[in-house]
Specification:
Helix content: 40-55%
Largest sheet: none
Radius of gyration: 19 Å
Number of strands: 0
Strand content: under 5%
Oligomer: single chain
Shape: elongated
Structural class: mainly alpha
Order of helices and strands: HHH
């Protein structure tokens, strides 16, 4: 209750309820979307190999790059289109 009634008034405002539900469903939906995406990439298997990712992801070239790192943003954009991140 403290998440939706931070003042401990015993009441939950409509806005507090909407804010709570938005946080709860957004986190779940995003996790489910990522899992579903990996499931497609894995060919419906419950795992994906590092070799699969390495073979398909490009090396990150940013100013903070270290040897062996992969560029998840460009790979995600290639799979799903432009990102707002």
């Amino acid at each position: 209750m403290s998440l939706v009634d931070p003042n401990h008034s015993g009441l939950v405002t409509f806005q507090a309820f909407i804010d709570f539900m938005s946080r709860e469903t957004t986190d779940t939906d995003m996790a489910d979307q990522v899992i579903a995406s990996f499931k497609v990439l894995a060919g419906d298997k419950n795992f994906i190999t590092a070799e699969y990712c390495i073979a398909r992801m490009v090396t990150y070239q940013g100013p903070d790059a270290v040897p062996g790192v992969l560029d998840y943003k460009s790979s995600s954009t290639a799979l799903y289109g432009e990102s707002n991140l």
